[in-house]
Predict the 3D structure of the following.
Amino acid sequence: MVVSDLIEKFGLTAYSGKDGLDRQVTGGYASDLLSDVMGHAREGQVWITLQTHKNVMAIASLKDLAAVILVKGHGPDDDAAQQSNEEGVPVLGTTREAFEMVGELYEAFKEHEIL
Amino acid sequence: MEYDYEIQGGDFSSAGFASSHLKKILKQIGIEPKLIKRIVIALYEAEVNIVAHAYEGRIHVEIEPGQIRLEIQDRGPGIEDIEQAMEDGYSTASEEVREMGFGAGMGLSNIKNNSDDLEITSTVNEGTELTIIKKFK
């Protein structure tokens, strides 16, 4: 499963980082605490968060995450979108709340035997 | 090989510059990806600490045969009780910093967990100095 499959399956908005839509997805991590993600997220995961600032992209890129999914209709800040484009790590969005998004992703990942 | 970086306190958009640059270098010289990840986590947290707490800071990186040494020095309020600062969940970060998702009190333990050796010295009202060593084996 790659990032663009998630966009299609869940009707996500692709805000930025479109060069990275073919990145392989190996799981997910949900947290709004940046040090928690820094310490515990793993390469290839999608990160579900409501944080929209540029540091999110620094972490996503340093950790080689597959993509960031912003919840509750949020979009990335301008400098975050710019860094997402530069690094080719997509920022996606949904109007769902984090709980729903994570639940649906978890089901799908189980089904595709990613988890 | 040696690299130097300067960081301004309060400038959150600059946090991650040094770690991102170092990540590329370590990749180029063929350091094992697992080790790169650990080094980058430690350096990123140190960068964020400067931005969140200090007025300014300097990072000096030395890549030696067999290990990497990161020296992070800031001018700032210093740490009164280092043992307490090392505790998970303890933070003196401002409300503004916390709203960005920083200041969860996990930074220093992330640094410790991802280094082989961590030394912290600090003088209140002057600043803090970290020396982080990660061996390549």
